[in-house]
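Re: the 148-residue chain
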Amino acid sequence: MNKPTALATLCVLVLAAVGLSGCGDPGEPQVEGPAPSPAKARGPVYVPDTMGHPLTRPTGFGLTEFSSVSRLSWRSWGGQKAVATGRLSGTWCLAQCSGDGYPATLELSGLQRRENVSYYTRATVRSAHLPPRDTDDLSAVRLPLPEP
C-alpha cells in the first residue's frame, strides 16, 4: 500500500472509531445547579373575578359564585402574595351577616405569568366569624385565569 492510501485508510478508521465511541447511550438527562427561584412579576398584576375579568387592587369582587369580598384595603400588592382586609359576604350568610358581611382578611397567591402580565390564581379568606364548613370552602379558592 502506498503512503497516501495508507494515510487515508488510517484517517477513515480513526474517524469511524471516534464517531462510534462518541455516539454512546445518552442515558438520563443530568440536572445540575439549584432550582430556579420563582419569577418576579413583571408588568401589571391582576386578580381575576369569578367571570375571569382582570382587576387590579379592586375594592371588591366576586370570589366564588356564592361569596364576595368588599371594602378591601390592600396592605400589599404585586409580590408573591397580596394581602387585604375587608368584608366577606355571600348567599350562605344572608340571615346572620346582614348586608355588611363579616370582617375578613384576603390573601392572594399563586402568581402566574401570561404574556406580559401576571395573575393571582389562589385566594384564602380568614375570618373569626365564619362557621367551620365555610372556612374550609374559602381557605383554598382557585381563581379562573382569563382566556388567552
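Residues 3-22 form the longest helix (20 residues).
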